């Protein structure tokens, strides 16, 4: 039986089931990205001095961001392994596994002694845990987005795909709020000594909640149709690389810009603004939380826009505006004015959803259901590896030049290259399967 015949077999979906899936996708993704970005906040505030001590603050920061990047390097491995298993065993089982990997590694970080206590074993174990985090989140995004998109009505692909995507700013908001609350509740010495561990240990409670919610969700209609018609592949990776390598690479290329912008603004700038610009830590955390709230609110609105005008058009508009906005954005941020910095983050995270909202629908639509989990995950994680180096690259560029303009140039060039790729990319080939 052909793939098209498989996808023609009806699978009834009720509005209640759709709502449950959206809720589970959003909550689970928010919890996992809480874990992932909590490490980013701790990199700037704790891990550099406590796990990578050095007489040179720049060297310590670079080492800490290097460990941060390890998580992104590991994400393609998670995308390949869990994507392949998800195409063979279903989306739901991999989402449960990814949550266990993320939650377990985050709690372990909260229990890990620092360099002063156990020496070089501390950074080694921390990097290993970060590797596990990367594998877990590498399988999370593709599964969560596919759960939503494969349950969606045809006219609302971007909107449904944006709901789990909203878990990313929600996770950032939650991570920074918890860090902000804990750091405000105790003295700086106490935060550095022990209180920083509280947000990591709290992940254990969140994971239990998310695990329960996801247990109540059924498999997607697309995968059920494949099972009914015996179209589930034994080797989905083989088919993916034989027939869909080019779409997969294009999908990775266009996915680079959103995380580069996000990581620079939410991870690197926390270090730069507090250490180089002398901005109070609490103020910078407020800025990042504010920007994430703007992004969270904008994503569903932009997704509706993308469903109307076309997913590719929305994506290309976001890239074009990003390229134009980068230099003014940094000019506002480096002005030192709290109000102008807030404005820079607000505009940035209104532009960002033009890309991030339709991203799930775009990547899901370029692969058939038999290889969709693998293809979408690997495309997304190709971008994550490249974008994951952005805080490290940012630290090196700004550290070498003592200003942000080389970083701005790097971001503009990256955006233009990805925009050119988007022009030539075909989207929507398998959007309705």
Short structural description:
This protein has 433 residues and is an all-alpha fold. The protein has helices spanning 3-8, 15-51, 57-89, 91-111, 115-118, 121-149, 157-165, 167-185, 188-195, 197-215, 221-228, 236-243, 245-254, 257-276, 281-309, 311-333, 338-351, 353-365, 372-388, 390-401, 405-424.
Shape: globular
- Average pLDDT reading: 85
Q: How would you sum up the major sheet?
A: none
- Percentage of residues assigned to helices: over 70%
Number of strands: 0
Number of helices: 21
Q: Distance N terminus to C terminus?
A: 15 Å
State the low-pLDDT regions, or none: 1-9
- Cα-atom Rg, whole angstroms? 21 Å
Strand content: under 5%
Structural class: mainly alpha
Give the SSE string. Answer: HHHHHHHHHHHHHHHHHHHHH
């Amino acid at each position: 039986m052909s793939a098209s015949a498989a996808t023609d077999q009806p699978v009834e979906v009720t509005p209640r089931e759709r709502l449950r899936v959206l809720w589970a996708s959003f909550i689970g993704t928010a919890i996992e990205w809480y874990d992932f970005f909590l490490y980013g906040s701790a990199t700037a505030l704790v891990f550099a001095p406590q796990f990578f001590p050095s007489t040179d603050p720049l060297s310590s920061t670079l080492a800490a961001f290097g460990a941060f990047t390890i998580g992104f390097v590991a994400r393609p491995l998670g995308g390949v392994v869990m994507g392949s298993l998800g195409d063979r065993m279903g989306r739901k089982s991999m989402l449960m596994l990814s949550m266990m990997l993320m939650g377990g590694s985050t709690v372990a970080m909260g229990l890990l002694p620092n360099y002063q206590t156990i020496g070089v074993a501390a950074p080694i174990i921390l990097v290993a845990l970060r590797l596990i985090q990367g594998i877990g989140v590498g399988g999370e995004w593709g599964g969560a987005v596919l759960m939503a998109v494969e349950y969606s009505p045809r006219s609302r692909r971007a909107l449904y795909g944006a709901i789990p995507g909203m878990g990313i700013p929600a996770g950032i908001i939650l991570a920074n709020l918890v860090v902000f609350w804990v750091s405000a509740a105790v003295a700086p010495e106490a935060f550095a000594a022990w209180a920083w561990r509280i947000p990591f240990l709290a992940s254990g409670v969140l994971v239990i909640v998310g695990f329960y919610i996801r247990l109540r969700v059924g498999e997607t209609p697309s995968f059920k149709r494949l099972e009914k018609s015996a179209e589930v592949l034994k080797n989905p990776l083989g088919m993916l690389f034989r027939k869909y390598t080019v779409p997969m690479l294009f999908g990775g290329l266009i996915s680079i810009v959103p995380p580069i912008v996000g990581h620079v603004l939410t991870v690197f700038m926390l270090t730069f603004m507090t250490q180089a610009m002398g901005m109070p830590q609490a103020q910078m955390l407020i800025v990042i939380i504010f920007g994430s709230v703007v992004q969270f609110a904008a994503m569903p609105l932009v997704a509706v826009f993308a469903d109307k005008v076309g997913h590719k058009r929305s994506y290309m508009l976001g890239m074009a505006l990003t390229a134009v906005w980068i230099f003014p954005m940094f000019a506002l941020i480096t002005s030192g004015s709290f109000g102008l910095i807030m404005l820079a983050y607000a505009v940035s995270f209104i532009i960002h959803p033009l890309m991030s909202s339709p991203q799930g629908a775009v990547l899901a639509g370029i692969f058939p259901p038999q290889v969709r989990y693998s293809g979408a995950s690997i495309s997304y994680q190709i971008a994550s590896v490249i974008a994951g180096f952005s805080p490290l690259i940012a630290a090196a560029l700004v550290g070498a030049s003592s200003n942000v303009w080389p970083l701005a140039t790097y971001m503009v060039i990256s955006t233009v290259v990805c925009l050119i790729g988007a022009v030539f990319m075909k989207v929507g080939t398998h959007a309705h399967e």
